[in-house]
Amino acid sequence: MTESPASRQGRLNRQKGKRKQAAVRRELEIIFDSPCIWEQMKRDEETWLHLPIAVEVKAGGQANPIHTRYKNAREQHFIDERPFVYVACPDNLADSYIVIRLSDLGRIINDRGQAELLLRDSEHL
Fold it and tell me: What is the pLDDT along the chain (125 residues), one digit of tens a residue?
């Protein structure tokens, strides 16, 4: 039995989403130093209870508009070498949204942790 083109595309989209989801989980586990000990908990974002944040991973067509906005905003700060955060402040909402690259988040947390260690060490001198 052959697979219809629509069915094949759906299967490929699911596979791509699962690959990206697994990559994000692995990166967040490194960033937060929080490895998953139960294999069953790796499958869906809803079961990533070992992480200190709730996560929903979107890939492909759902993520492309966000990427475009982030990229356009980032280009305005091409000289600045610091990690970049895109902040969206919609109308009629008291709160805001932030978009940051996962690699930049890891860099910020790592740099902050190293700075705290240096500060603690200097206090003991």
Answer: 788 999 999 999 999 999 999 999 999 999 998 888 887 778 888 889 889 999 999 988 899 999 999 999 999 887 778 889 999 999 999 999 999 999 999 888 888 776 676 667 666 55
Distance CA 99, CA 57 (A): 13
Strands (E), the chain: 85-88, 97-100
Count how many Cα atoms sit within 13 Å of the Cα of residue 101 in the half-sphere of its side chain: 10
What are the φ/ψ torsions at residue 4 (nearest 5 degrees)? -70, 155
For residue 13 the two structure tokens come to 């989209």
Q: At how many degrees (to 10) do helices 102-123 and 5-31 cross?
A: 10
> Under 8 Å CB-to-CB from 32, ≥6 apart: which residues?
51, 52, 53, 109
Angle at 110 between CA 72 and CA 103, to 5 degrees: 30
Instruction: State the distance between the two ends of the chain, measured CA to CA, in whole angstroms.
Output: 74
